[in-house]
Amino acid sequence: MAPQYRKALIIGATSGIGEALASKLHGEGTSVIVTGLRQERLDAFAAAHPGAHGLALDVRDLAALPGFAAGVVAAHPDLDCVVLNAGIQRAFDFSRPETLDLALFSEELTTNYLASVHLTAAFLPHLQKTSREGADAHLVFVSTSLALVPTMTRTPGYNASKAALHSWVTTVRQQQADAGFSKLKVVEVFPPAVQTELHDTRNQPDLVNGGDIGMPLAAFTDAMRAGLARGDDQFAVGHADEWVRSGFEAERTRIFQRDQVVLKNSLTKFLKNGGGSQL
Predict the structure, then answer these.
(1) Is residue 16 within 8 Å of residue 91, measured between CB atoms?
(2) What's the pLDDT tens digit per position in 33-74?
(3) Verdict on whether the full-model pTM lies above 0.90
(4) Residue 32 — very low, low, confident or very high, per pLDDT cuts 50/70/90?
(5) Cα–Cα dist 18/28, whole Å
(6) How far apart are CA 243 and CA 158, in angstroms?
(7) How far from chain centre, in Å, is Cα 217?
(8) How many CB atoms lie within 10 A of CB 248?
């Protein structure tokens, strides 16, 4: 059986979910390109996975992302899947404003949200072309259940950045459908807490043994891979699964699908040339 993806680029794959997913896809026969900040980790991954490519990338350098994407597409024209997984999580206590590092807050927003926007804009022309030529193309966003309900109050920036990502992905998906890119699949995944470096002391100094928080990585990776194989536009692993399948998020999706059509129709007379792709 042919793999679901011919060649996948995983942004943020030097550890955790990104590395585990890349390894699983490679084992299925997908060619993989992994990115991250730590070159030694990329080299180790490529050495352990024959044919894999490792590319150093700092997603916080927004100005460099279009050039990075152009280079990847030129070198790998068969790329048909981009997974946006890079993310950081930090604690901020707004009850003690004197303790806030707002530069770090901005870095979190850039890493978790703005970088995905810029990378999507950079890779969409290639993925749209792939869809237009009749082949499947995939754009996968790794979010969090905290995007749906921000229950972890110690991480307000992380929660907000992922909520912004969710809202944005919802509209970008609809724009692709409206523009006729029927073979371009835009997918959002909502993980629970997973045992990765996201929670370790190096990244969150106020935690002790934070890497033990959440679902074991291997179990999550298996569940995520199964969800991707199902082909759902969005899905959750763990406690948020019910929210997305039949709970409040399913209802919100239904409302969006209904009312975005109503709003398009009501705005038509106010938009130049009938609005075109703006509708």
Answers:
(1) no
(2) 999 999 999 999 999 999 999 999 999 999 999 999 999 999
(3) yes
(4) very high
(5) 15
(6) 20
(7) 17
(8) 12
Count of CB atoms within 10 A of residue 126's CB? Answer: 20
What's the mean pLDDT when you consider all of the chain? 95
Alpha carbons 264 and 274: distance in angstroms, whole number: 10
- Running DSSP on this structure, what letter comes out for residue 110? I
Report whether 34 contacts 22 (CB < 8 A).
yes
Residues contacting residue 28 through CB under 8 Å, at least 6 positions apart = 3, 4
If phi over 0 gives left and psi between -120 and 50 gives alpha, with beta otherwise, what is residue 250? alpha
Cα atoms found within 13 Å of the Cα of residue 227, Cβ hemisphere only: 25
Please tell me whether residue 30 adopts helix, strand or coil conformation: coil
pLDDT(275) > 70: no
Block residue for tokens 């699949």 = 185
Torsion of CA 23, 27, 29, 35, to 10 degrees: 10
- 148 touches 165 (CB < 8 A): no
| pLDDT tens-digit series, residues 233-273 | 999 999 999 999 999 999 999 999 999 999 999 999 899 87
